[in-house]
Amino acid sequence: MSRHTEAVAPDGTRLAVAVDGTGPPLLFLHEVAGDLLDWERQVEHFADRYTCVRYNARGYPPSDVPAEPSRYGQDIAVRDALAVLDSLGLAAAHVVGLSMGGFCALHLALEHPGRCLSVTVAGAGYGSAPHQRAGFAEEARTAAGLFGADVPTAARAYQDGPTRRQFRRKDDAAWQRFGERLAARDAVGMSMTFAEVLARRPSLYDLRDRLSEVRTPALLVVGDEDDGCLDVNVMLKRTMPAAGLYVLPHTGHTVNHEEPDAFNELLDSFLDQVAAGRWPSRDPATLGRGLVGMVGAPPPERPRPRPMYSPTDPHHAHTRNGAAMTSPTDSPLPAPPTVRQLRLVVVAEDYEAAVAFYRDALGLPEQAAFSSGDGAQVVILDAGRATLEIANPAQKKMIDDVEVGRQVAPRIRVAFEVDDTKAATDRLLSAGAAQVAPPTVTPWQSLNSRLDTPAELQITLFQELLSLEERGSLDGFGTEAGRGESADGQP
Prior knowledge:
α2 crosses α3 (100-111) and α4 packs antiparallel against α5 (151-159). The protein is globular and about 75 Å long. It contains 17 helices and 16 strands. It has helices at residues 40-46, 74-87, 100-111, 133-149, 151-159, 165-170, 172-183, 187-198, 208-211, 230-239, 255-258, 260-275, 351-361, 393-403, 421-430, 468-471, 480-483, and strands spanning 3-8, 14-20, 25-29, 51-55, 93-98, 116-122, 218-223, 243-248, 318-320, 323-325, 366-371, 377-381, 414-417, 434-441, 446-453, 457-464. The longest helix is centred in the first third of the chain and has 17 residues, at 133-149. By secondary structure, the chain is of the alpha/beta class. It has two domains: 3-275, Alpha/Beta hydrolase fold, catalytic domain (Rossmann fold), CATH 3.40.50.1820; 387-471, 2,3-Dihydroxybiphenyl 1,2-Dioxygenase, domain 1.
């Protein structure tokens, strides 16, 4: 049975929230003609492994129905979604949105990527295609007037729209129940939502430059008979590097109603891949080279650092206890494996304190969590891009001298890149960290602080003050291969 609660938006609007299940959070955002009940089939499927969170948007009772137009809009919808997460103490969630909710999911990924473990965007796009934009805005304003005057009459027309008849053909009883809920909507809420959210929201085509920078894993789902969304989703697939597109055959707008089993299966697979770090971004070499790769210059080979040693090169033989270590055969090493993710595993005696510090204070989104009946617990936090820094003892000594002024670092130290080292340091100190060294500008132009933190980790917070290209011009920077060549490129 759902646990019912409420969230309060920044302007005081109360939002009705339903919560089911336990596990990583899964936030569902409904469409203009729906409400939180639209996701029943998804909750039934996922609540045994995820915390399923649904809410009625403002204007949809029992959520509040503000009467002022200024209290509706795409940006306000995003703030409402954040208010729901905040009310439940959730730093981030997998976000799933249908149509109007899909627009909200995309804007969450644009404006607050750290709050999105992933986004699933279903049936989103109405009013975005350039040739449909003016016409859709006029339809939305017309719908606002009709719902404001006579909700049941408007609901019957809207329910029988050209991209909803597919739902009727597949499950007439469910389609009828959907229409009954729509006919009972609040006149003011429906009118305001159509006029102030749908008619005024920006076209996704106008957001292409920003969408191309989104790295949040994204699943796009659209029906092949959803004419207002099909072309838009192809555009989104071509624009968003971490997006995958699924097109459901003989399907209209309400994909999770029409094909609940297929939708659940797609979403399940996507979430599993995201949790395992296996959801890929598009290879840039698949773009801009014609259709079969015969146009334009071939993609450059990825530069590889010169190896520090080779098992088959006697000039680079490694030694152990004075004895040379060589390859047992004269054949080269096999190709290296493809590494998908670097994961640091830490054992914390005070598990709850460590989770609260790294997830809630540092703000690392929860990607997955597991527990067993014998008390074993683990949580996986998303720390963004991972790198492995390998330093020799002289480098370790130099870093300690620069950041702290004395030798304090253990053999393994964890570093987190942040946007504002001073603010992040203050936040973690207030959460219980102990300061080893205050923020200090390093010779390589980063602002670093050093902290002792839960799970017996010593961490560095660092803020890059120069770009990677700019740092590359500083003395001592470059790749192993680059440092083996003189300025004119000769060894």
